[in-house]
Amino acid sequence: MLLLLCALMLGACASQQSKRPTPPPLLNYGPEVQVADVDVLAISPEMIEFVERYILKYSDMHTRQFLLMSAVSHNGVLGFDYDASLTLTAKESFERRSGNCIGFANMMIALARRAGLKAEYQEVLRRPEWSSHEDTVLLIKHINVLLYSPGYTYVVDVSGIKMNPNMRRRVIKDKQAKALYLNNFGAEALLEDELPKAHAYLSSAIDTEPLITDPWVNLGVVFGRNDQLDDAAMALERALEIDISEHAAMSNLYEVYLAQEDLEAAEVLQAKVEKYRNSNPYYLLKLSDEALAQAKFEESISLLKRAIRKKKDDHQLHFALAKTQYLSGEITAAKGSLVRARKLAPQDMLTYYDQPLDVLLAEE
Q: Considering the entire predicted model, what is its pTM?
């Protein structure tokens, strides 16, 4: 599940509903994009038949639970495949036999409840895992499913992501999961710079559940890109009202204050923002690029090594190190870094990394 520069936080009570701000409109884009309401847990006739054929004929809840978990596994009757790029409803995930963590959770919970089992969404509060996309930084987050039967609780997760048993976890309600589903579409639209679509989905997510920070942070990015700085500040400040430790909101708000030339407000956030950014490998990559542009090779290499210690499995970081080492004259080390970049790269990048470093540098 991809969520743009954001973290989740619940809070407050229903009596505060009237005081919650609503998202301002996106200016200079004409008619608003309409987002149709969707029941992410709606069940299809095929899903009903699946449950009746494989699960419901057994009355014991433990048996139903075991059979359902087995049936939806990669090698089971359904044969579900995890695909981090697919945000789907329960019906869509069942039809395609694939989806990301939200898609799988929607499908699994819908099937489990049809089978008479208690099932809930669970957010896993992992250590922040960063991924880059052009000029945007993404924070990868994760949701799985809790299945209950008398005396037992099972965690169902098809992602293959390694989970430390000491990771903090929390149950989230159906409407919060739906808001994250909508937020994903908003974040994906934002990555494509489709601001009206992003604004529409993020506003819908906020309408579904106003007290999570994710869509407010992403909406702040939308407004910032559209030069609506006051609205961007409002959205990001709202995220910080929900969760005062929301680092992504803080970092973006700091940039908005600078753009507004509100140096006093920016100074209040500066220390916390710098601490947060220095834990982000892609911010360190940005700093290393700046150092490299000034021929500060030692500083650039040091920053890249810090970034790699924080995220060892990103080919982009190892390639950046290879380039910097090559330019600094560390040819042997550069070749080793390029080999590591190639080992970590996706299939469609292998031909690119087969080229000599001097050719790659010339291309860039």
A: 0.78
